[in-house]
Amino acid sequence: MTIAPSDSSAGQNEAGWTPPPAWTPPPGWYGDPYDARSLRWWSGAEWTAYTYPVQIQPVQPAKKARPPRKWIGRFGGWIFAASSVFIWLWLFGFSLLFNAIAPHAHDDGPAVLSPFLLVTGAATVAAAILYTMAYRLKPADGLSASRLVIIAGVGGLAATLVAAPINTAINLLGGGTSSHPSGAALVLAGVVEELVKVTAAILLALRLPVKNARIGLFIGGAVGLGFSVIENLSYLQEAFARGQDSPLGFGVFVGTAIGRELTGPFLHPVFTALLTAAVFGATRNGRYRVTFGVVLAYLGVAAAHGMFNGAAWLAQNLPWPAAARGGAILLFDLVFVVASGVTWLLIARRIRRRSDQEAAQQEADQRAATNASSAA
């Protein structure tokens, strides 16, 4: 409280009569009207000579708030992959140990084949990628992590249930079998599967509040991951069943697992993510449109998918030694996966830059509108 200095002559009229003093605060320490750095004792009627310095506390800089920890961190995908490696080593180690202690002479199948390997081999890489995708979601995307997981499961299952009988019918018409599919079925698989997957992504995203190319990458990638898990599980189940009846079954199973984990969780999500991004990027006011860019994107991913399957079929039917054919397939898979990944990375960066520019423009427009309303 600041009180004006006392003046005994203040308020005295010309006749010498002094009116009764106005109300004054009780005695105590108050802010010194002569020095803001001190307190001065107010006697109840006037300021005294007693002062007391004010202790000014230095202002501590505010600590920067750390963002809350999100789930198991940004490296959660690597934790998923490491857990799968641990499970495989655990099963192999104990199986080999038990075989060394008490070998089963009449056991026809290799004991190292465990049903747990089916789940970890088919789903671990896909789960790691899906976790990383969910971790990168933003509140402005209007897409929760739980919904992304549901889209992956429902979309992948629905697309598999639709695409599988169509691919089987094409295979039968082309003269192929389950163990030796026809070339036509393999090449046309891209046409069928990419159309079915993007349709599932579109239907599952009908009620999403935001539909743009960035959201298309997430939705399409999730459906592709779900599709790859189910497809890989079927391949591994077939290799697992054959491995139980063959001394070389373990090698066949591991080779199938490596091949499927190298291609399935990467190519299916990449193809579907790019196509869905093109579809969502062409939307206007939440409405889907079939533009030239959408058609071109579909033809591109379908051709790439068919080319990958066709090259694998061609390598398997070449009159080369088995080792040469296997090496050629592996080399082609590596090159194809790397090329597809680089393509996805370039397009994803372009979409992210465009999304950041649009967000900055919207923020600038909102700021300008707020300033205009304030000025009015």
Describe this entry's structure for a reader.
The chain is mainly α. It is 64% helix and 4% strand. It contains eight helices and three strands, in the order E-E-E-H-H-H-H-H-H-H-H. The protein has helices spanning 76-101, 116-135, 145-173, 183-204, 213-243, 249-281, 292-317, 322-375, and strands spanning 28-31, 38-42, 47-53. A three-stranded antiparallel β-sheet has the order 1-2-3, with no helix packed on it. Helix 4 (183-204) crosses helix 6. The radius of gyration is 36 Å and the shape is elongated.
Average pLDDT taken over every residue? 80
Total number of beta strands: 3
Query: Radius of gyration over alpha carbons?
Result: 36 Å
Number of helices: 8
Query: Can you tell me the residue ranges where pLDDT is under 50 for at least 5 consecutive residues?
Result: 6-18
Shape: elongated
Strand content: under 5%
Helix content: 55-70%
First and last CA, distance? 39 Å
Main structural class? mainly alpha
| Biggest sheet details | 3 strands, antiparallel
In short:
The chain has 376 residues and is mostly helical.
